[in-house]
Design brief:
The protein is of the alpha+beta class. It contains 6 helices and 15 strands.
Length: 259
């Protein structure tokens, strides 16, 4: 299943840039940074190694604060080397259906760029997570309801790029709680302890628009929800990923409520 593959079907990553599925998934673990608001599958670990990656690759990046997602391909072979994608702060509508996404056929492999040169990839603008926080799905508001011809490309452990009718429409991170990090460090190799996925769901349910605006205006009801989450976290087993949520929530509480 994880052997190198080549699929000549062209997939539109953007309106002007196409890829195919080729090779093996990236041998890198995702990192889901709550403070940074991004998911990254990339060989870089700091600013210096990030600059080295950019020098060795082409593709999309947040050029001069453009807000674009980062997807990079090797200068030598045009194969996917790494990516960093924004996690939106807005949720999907209540009627949004995840079933077609989670039941879509799955291909294992990296992406191979069909052309050289830089391009832009706009970030997704809404997110969905199930109550057990087993799947985080990020997509675009202008994607039609119940898209047809869905396929998931498993480009790294637990990470799928999703295409509909050969057009990129978003991505899925499975068991996101396992991959929680502060910034660029590697997540622990084992599964997160029991109860932490539920805490991540609570975090994602609270820290979402328009609730973020209300917290920044010092909404007292939401302060109670934040404090309840912090109490919930103290009852869970000690784990670096628990501390990621705990510290980030405490920092936001201090910044927004000045307490």
């Amino acid at each position: 299943m994880n052997d190198a593959i080549t699929d000549d079907s062209q997939l539109a990553l953007t309106d002007s840039h196409s890829v195919t599925v080729a090779g093996r998934p990236l041998p890198l673990s995702p990192g889901y940074s709550l403070p940074g608001g991004f998911v990254s599958v990339s060989p870089h670990t700091d600013q210096q190694t990030h600059e080295a990656l950019l020098a060795e690759t082409f593709g999309s990046v947040d050029w001069l604060w453009s807000g674009d997602d980062e997807i990079r391909f090797g200068n030598d072979d045009a194969m996917l080397r790494g990516f960093t994608l924004t996690v939106p702060e807005c949720r999907t509508p209540d009627a949004w259906d995840s079933t077609p996404w989670l039941s879509a056929p799955l291909k294992y492999g990296a992406l191979h760029s069909l052309s050289l040169g830089n391009f832009d990839v706009r970030p997704t603008d809404m997110r969905w997570v199930d109550e057990s926080a087993q799947h985080l799905i990020c997509t675009f508001r202008d994607v039609e309801s119940g898209p047809h011809g869905l396929v998931r490309v498993r480009a790294a452990q637990g990470f799928d790029f999703v295409f509909a009718s050969d057009v990129y429409i978003g991505w899925i991170l499975t068991t996101p709680v396992d991959f929680l990090v502060r910034e660029w460090e590697l997540p622990p190799p084992d599964s997160a302890p029991a109860g932490l996925a539920e805490a991540l769901y609570t975090y994602l349910d609270i820290f979402v628009e328009p609730k973020i605006d209300r917290m920044q205006d010092k909404d007292p009801t939401l302060l109670g929800e934040v404090d309840s989450l912090l109490t919930q976290l103290t009852l869970l087993p000690d784990d670096p990923r628990r501390h990621v949520i705990e510290e980030h929530v405490a920092d936001l509480r201090a910044d927004w409520y000045e307490l």
